[in-house]
């Protein structure tokens, strides 16, 4: 079976010349041809985009930088008819008002307290968000307990003046709580010692908190009516965050609970709050909170929107956390149960750590939304950053055509820096978490 | 010996406590919850009753019949300060909310899809411009954007006598946008009938085309025919009527008077600011939804379509978009709801929406806090629930049927 085919006719004998390298495989020109001018449609789009940039960028740069006024004491430096050349952003106005924008009407001599608050807030945020920070469990304790108490004392001046009667009642209530826990432990055949320790811990924590608030640190009391600007914006955002995370987790657990009434209550709360605009929640808190309380009590004007925001943020947080809980495979629950863990142990040690880690990006996104939404408190008359800008904008001392734009530009920059920073962080976390999924 | 005894006594069946019974615990916890919630509601209720008594405010919904006595700048139904009740004011506010939300949803969807697709463009410049748009708009509070549009952009517009003329009867000034108001003659019924016939015809044709395609595999130009029937038929009717008899639709043009513009249709600057703000803000979120949806369609689908010989346009229309829509629709629904809820920010710039009219003016005038809050929140809840119901129905029809 030798069928010899003469291959020589088909196989080329001589070597062909190598083709010249493509002229434009890399380099800026090739990149442009690839990405900007790859066809008639793309070229047209590029030209359109360029035109758009030409229309928008130069005026913005001219307004914000080239024609901007950086120094000056009053409106004369920012009026075109007085200085004789086009005037852009009037940064001198911001520089003049920056203290008002930051502290509102907080007494000037006491502003160091606000600065300390900003510092403590920054420490707490970095401790919690920096994934490689040491002892992040202590960070959580700091952020959710120590920091709020210290801030409250710093900002208001503390010295709540509860009086002796209050402390007597507190001591009795504490004793009753401990006794009740001990009795329950006895009835349940559980360790009485643990129950007493847990009860004493709760009573001590609450007691220390109240005592700290009650103590006179000799700080000048500053009523919340004087607070304003960035201080209030950050307070509303922080209170929303500090309350919404634990409440949201509880609501999410309630929604996934097997107890029908508990589940129903959680579902109603979540769906109700998520179905209405924040502004109606704020107006409700503003008008109805005083109505629902006994006539002789008064609610602080700043506290009302804080309650509203905390509720609102909790409902949104609950849905984020629920997503995380649903993502945990059933085997994790079963494994925890087969180890004999009870419900709280299963949740605290097995399920929640995994669920929360999955939804960190979602949590951060909720924070971003919350941070932007804090601007709404200005509608119900709270002096936040937007309100201080609205108030300064119409100051006759600074009556100039570009003042409004400058004020809004400043506020936009403030919100943008915070929100964009948070969204970058969440993208970073997402990438880190996804790294574990790669094979 | 003693140790053995203790072991035996421990091994004997433990004292069965009914407190260990999960059912008992469940009942206990839920009873605790019910008692707490009931107590809170009871306290709040009695306090509210006392407080209202003290303030001499009669509870109940009777105030809706009372004469309102305040004016509203934009009303879609007949309304006057002297003759209309608080109930009418509520309806006016509700309609204004619905109008701005509906128009905003349409515009935001169009803009959002354009920006979302632009972010995925192979054209580097277009993609970056879209990205900057999204990042900028998403990270600045909507309230600030509304104030910017209303005060900084629309505020410095000239007085009516120096109106900016935009041609075709459109004028822009500090009191808003003026445009021609259509006046309908009685013949307009013919155009409406043509429109109705067109819509019915288009639906029937779509059904027929789908059945034919399932039977024979032939495709028809459904989009073109639909467009012709729905849009073309009324336009043709209009032209024929205008040529044969009188023109059924004429326009009342705004004219420059001494102080103000006469005639025409006025659109409030508050409305424009709210619409622009809501549209551009929500579009940034919709763009992200669209981008995520398109990215969720695996590349293999595009490649498979290509290997079957479909053209890129067909691939997009028949393979990618239908699959992306499944991912897009649920979050898109939440964006629609967000837009509707965010329209309540109208209160900050004075557009007479539900919150501004009802929760603002009516609440302040009557002091009926509980009733007003309950009604307003009820309205938003209803809108939310109805919207999500319809979107869920649509979603179920579009969802993948797994076998």
UniProtKB/TrEMBL annotation, chain A:
Localization: Cell inner membrane; Cell membrane
GO terms assigned for molecular function: transmembrane transporter activity
One annotated Gene Ontology cellular component of this protein: ATP-binding cassette (ABC) transporter complex
GO biological process, one term: amino acid transport
Domain ABC transmembrane type-1: residue ranges: 230-426
SUPFAM superfamilies from the UniProt entry: MetI-like
Pfam family, one: BPD_transp_1
Alphabetical keyword list: Cell membrane, Membrane, Transmembrane, Transmembrane helix, Transport
Matches recorded under Gene3D superfamilies: MetI-like
Membrane topology type: Multi-pass membrane protein
Chain ranges passing through the membrane: 36-57, 112-131, 138-155, 167-188, 195-213, 225-252, 264-285, 305-325, 346-371, 405-423
Annotated family: Belongs to the binding-protein-dependent transport system permease family. HisMQ subfamily.
Record PANTHER family: INNER MEMBRANE AMINO-ACID ABC TRANSPORTER PERMEASE PROTEIN YHDY (PTHR30614:SF41), MEMBRANE COMPONENT OF AMINO ACID ABC TRANSPORTER (PTHR30614)
Name the UniProt record assigns to this protein: ABC transporter permease subunit
Organism for this UniProt entry: Microvirga thermotolerans
Automatic annotation (TrEMBL), chain B:
Chain ranges passing through the membrane: 24-42, 89-118, 130-152, 183-205, 226-251, 271-290, 345-363, 369-394
One Gene Ontology term from the biological process aspect of the record: amino acid transport
Membrane-protein topology: Multi-pass membrane protein
Record InterPro entries: AA_ABC_transptr_permease_3TM, ArtM/GltK/GlnP/TcyL/YhdX-like, MetI-like, MetI-like_sf
Subcellular location: Cell inner membrane; Cell membrane
GO cellular component terms listed in the entry, alphabetical order: ATP-binding cassette (ABC) transporter complex
Entry GO MF terms: transmembrane transporter activity
Entry keyword annotation includes Cell inner membrane: no
Residue ranges of domain ABC transmembrane type-1 in the record: 94-391
Cell membrane is among the record's keywords: yes
Family stated for the protein in its record: Belongs to the binding-protein-dependent transport system permease family. HisMQ subfamily.
Protein name, per record: ABC transporter permease subunit
Organism: Microvirga thermotolerans
